[in-house]
Amino acid sequence: MTPQPECPGEEALIREAQRGDAGAFEQLVRRHAGLVFSIARSWMPDHGGAEDLFQEVFLRVHLNLHQLRDPARFAPWLARLTRNLAAEWLRRGLRRSQLVAMVPMDDEAVSQVPDTQMKGAREIMEREEQIAALQRAIGHLPPDLRELVWLHSVEGMSQVEISTRLGVTQATVSRRRRKCHGNGQGSDRGGGHRRGGIPGAQPDER
Hints:
Elements: H1 10-18, H2 22-43, H3 47-64, H4 74-92, H5 98-102, H6 108-111, H7 121-126, H8 128-138, H9 143-153, H10 159-166, H11 170-183
Helix pairs in contact: 1-2, 2-3, 2-4, 2-9, 3-4, 9-11, 10-11
């Protein structure tokens, strides 16, 4: 099933951004900043690495958005890009972006790179104490399960929203949710969650 665009008018917004409209690109970044930062934080072992990954992802989006043929696939494409880049950084032992540093500061692409003070990413960072507890609770999970918990617990996404954003079926989300719950049985990691489960491991199915 082809995912529907995340917001009304998003396909038109993506087309405008592909034609070089800076305002349209900024709106896309604001809409999806939380998704990217949540995935980045799920993969990267430290906060600073997640911030740098966040910036490089959107630099790559700016440079490669013209390659996206189906605007309805923007969110899954963005999620996959973030995940693949995080895996590459971990494989190469990177903690800071080499690409952002290579682009001249006066380059138009750099001016389009968001910082992590954008709404979504900023809100996550403001809840750092809660985030630290969540990280302790889910640190033993594989990255794909950590993504699920992050997107539900931090971004407040339902199962349907997670399915749409990641470009996977609801059955896949349900299966990962059950794995999260199973991995949390008998665990009191993170201190603040209910006994016998991972916090936020069971997204609503609305």
